[in-house]
Design goal:
Number of helices: 12
Catalytic activity: precorrin-2 + NAD(+) = sirohydrochlorin + NADH + 2 H(+)
Structural class: alpha/beta
Distance between the termini: 43 Å
InterPro entries: 4pyrrol_Mease, 4pyrrol_Methylase_sf, 4pyrrole_Mease_sub1, Met8-like, NAD(P)-bd_dom_sf, Sirohaem_synthase_dimer_dom, Sirohaem_synthase_N
GO molecular function, one term: methyltransferase activity
Enzyme class: oxidoreductase
CATH architecture of the largest domain: 3-Layer(aba) Sandwich
Radius of gyration: 26 Å
Protein name: precorrin-2 dehydrogenase
């Protein structure tokens, strides 16, 4: 590795952005996610940056560029959009001893900005050392699909509970406790929209001194399918497939969607692997319920026209997941 990945505490630290155009604004938007102090070094600022200065969220410096502007800075972005000028400023920043990033010039970067998946406080950074930013964005897109938008709230709650866990849960039970929180009932409740129930379940387990000893409760997610293109699956449908212990496909045409399922999940494709094409929905329901009773997570892909009939007799906590984006 030419660049070592790490996270820096930015609170109360100075970040200097040399430039006042759109590229500078892009870097400013990124740094505004942190608690750093921002300064723009430019003769003029585009309206978005000027607004930040007017609101007191950044400083505007019009002094001649010299080493003194960068002394003590945690990070400097150089984006004047003039290649020769950028190279000159790079040398000045280096002499000042600050980390520098010259936009679109990997050869003039002491630090690079990765593609970010932001679920604060959960943050995933993807970097390619400037070699393949398009690939980094592709990976970012896939991760955005996997990590639900509100996941940061769940992670933040877990962080607030760490002291309580340290006080109430014996040391040898803490790792199993956190595994249960992020892999079992609390995470599933939160992902299904039952945030308060998820938090209450965690608090109850802390008060009880650890995660429940009994196997986790099963789950059945019903996915009514109206189109066959896996690329059209909703985010939640993809998440349920990746969590499933068992996936039942009512029709062989749904099989391509299994490519998105967890690798070690059991799969039943009606008419291909199991039963016949006229295998009754009631028989499939029985298979789903046996897995549910064992504490397994089941995803049942059914034609949209059969969704209501399929739901009959399924658990009260059945999750109906929109399968395909419209």
């Amino acid at each position: 590795m030419k660049f070592f990945p790490m996270f820096l505490r930015m609170a109360e630290r100075d970040v200097v952005i040399v430039g006042g155009g759109e590229t500078a604004a892009q870097k400013a938007r990124l740094m505004l996610k942190t608690e750093a102090h921002l300064s723009f070094v430019a003769a003029e600022l585009e309206p978005e940056l000027q607004a930040l200065v007017s609101e007191g969220r950044a400083h505007h410096v019009t002094d001649e560029i010299s080493e003194s502007l960068f002394e003590g800075a945690a990070l400097v972005f150089v984006c004047t959009e003039d290649e020769a000028r950028d190279a000159e400023i790079y040398q000045i920043v280096r002499r000042a001893g600050a980390l520098v990033n010259v936009v679109d010039r990997p050869d003039l970067c002491e630090a690079t900005t990765p593609s970010l998946v932001d679920r604060d406080p959960l943050v995933v950074a993807i970097g390619t050392e400037g070699a393949a930013p398009v690939l980094a964005r592709q990976i970012k897109t896939r991760l955005e699909e996997i990590l639900e938008p509100k996941l940061g709230e769940f992670v933040a709650f877990g962080g607030r509970m760490r002291d309580a866990v340290a006080e109430s849960v014996p040391r040898e039970k803490r790792r199993p406790f956190w595994r249960w929180v992020y892999h079992e009932t609390p995470r599933r409740l939160f992902a299904s929209g039952a945030e308060r129930a998820a938090f209450d379940t965690i608090k109850a387990a802390i008060n009880a001194g650890g995660a429940p000893d009994a196997p986790g409760t099963g789950q059945v997610a019903l996915l009514p399918v109206g189109a066959l293109d896996p690329d059209l699956l909703t985010l939640r449908a993809v998440q349920r497939l990746q969590e499933a212990d068992l996936v039942i496909c009512t029709e062989p045409e749904f099989a391509p969607m299994l490519e998105l399922a967890r690798r070690d999940a059991a799969r039943i494709v009606v008419g291909r692997d199991y039963g016949t094409e006229d295998w009754l929905l009631s028989d499939q329901r029985n298979v789903a319920m046996r897995a549910y009773d064992k504490g397994q997570r089941v995803v049942w892909l059914v034609p949209r026209r059969d969704a209501e009939r399929a739901a009959l007799g399924l658990p009260a906590d059945l999750e109906r997941v929109p399968a395909v984006r419209v």
